[in-house]
Amino acid sequence: MLDFITEKTDCWDYLKNTDLPVFIYGMGDGAMKIMRVFEQYGIPLAGFFASDEFVRGHTFQGHLVHTLSQIEALIDDFVIVLAFAAGYQSLYDRINEIAKRHILLAPDVPVAGEGLFTYAYCMENTEKIQAVYDMLADEKSRQTYADVLNFKISGKIDYLNNCTSPKEEIYGEIIPLGKEDIFADLGAYNGDTAAEFIEASKSCGGNFRHIYAFEPNPKNFRKLTKNLPDSDKITLYNAAAGRENGTVKISANEGRMSRENGSGKTVEIPVLSLNEAVSENVTVLKLDVEGAEREAILGARRHIENGAKILCSLYHRNEDMFDLPLLIKSINPELKFFIRHQLYIPAWETNLYAVH
């Protein structure tokens, strides 16, 4: 089983055993997470570098932050560990150019939850991973699934380069739209996905019936309100999506991350079950709720049973790559499942699509 898992050496073991100096590219939360794993594995750190525009005599965690060219002038060969996300083309291209000159790894550290996605972790979950692979509806999904899992183990970005697909193929090719679609956007952020749905629905004359958008972070919600048109066909909820109605404490910061992380200012906001909040049958359901997908799926069970087409992120928790597809399949076994990865390093735009 798992013949498609070809990477058996974790990136962390590689970094521990290499004779080359290891530099972290980037500063901030990503670098802090990676440093904690370095400490856990006993991986020596040679230093940090950042893009030229960010290097102004900065220090980070007691290290002077260099530019790449400064390090290249001093050291012939070294390993680069990427510590930030690249989600737009020019930055993605820059990272790939650097990877042509040096060994570059982008270790997978979960957005939410604990632990690391290692080869041993794959082996512990062999049956679930194989079950997801076997139920995927096309060869491109199976190849994407294999590439993303091998990336998560190894940190090698070539796997992501190999499986990156354009967003444009989702609506129409994988998720067909109709004139009376009802879209539920769980984790609406600033309205970007809802705007994509509105644009895609123009192929059907723009005659969607309704959009229900849920966003818990108050600052993101204000952006959502500003970015989506004022229409009686759009209902916005400053609430999180969950299994049942209640409340949750969330971070009050500017970013996408919403759930309470134990530090910083928090606010308490409502949690709504989609089953309770929306009585009519949702026909297109998107879930990107920063690690709370399982609870949101259970709170949308009725809509999934009734055949809602699903777009679900698979990258917040280690177990999402197998637990979420299997959970959705257990709710509605008639669905066909696809996986695509859109332009992003690390694998933060790996999504599941399910349709009848």
Structural notes for this entry:
The chain has 14 helices and 16 strands. The chain is an alpha/beta fold. The strands form three sheets. A seven-stranded mixed sheet has the order 9-8-7-13-14-16-15, sandwiched between helices. The chain has a six-stranded mixed sheet with strand order 3-4-2-1-5-6. A three-stranded mixed sheet has the order 10-12-11. The two termini are 28 Å apart.
End-to-end CA span: 28 Å
The oligomeric state is single chain
Main-sheet strand order equals 9-8-7-13-14-16-15
Mean pLDDT: 93
Question: Low-confidence stretches at least 5 residues in length (pLDDT < 50)?
Answer: none
Number of strands: 16
Which shape, going by the Cα principal axes?
globular
Q: What is Rg?
A: 21 Å
| Main β sheet profile | 7 strands, mixed
The class by helix and strand makeup works out as alpha/beta
CATH architectural category of the largest domain: 3-Layer(aba) Sandwich
Assign the CATH class of the largest domain. Answer: Alpha Beta
What's the CATH H-level superfamily name of the largest domain? NAD(P)-binding Rossmann-like Domain
CATH topology of the largest domain: Rossmann fold
Following the backbone from N to C, one meets helices and strands in this order, namely HEHEEEHEHEHHHHEHEHEEEEHEHHEHEE
How many domains comprise the coordinates?
Answer: 2
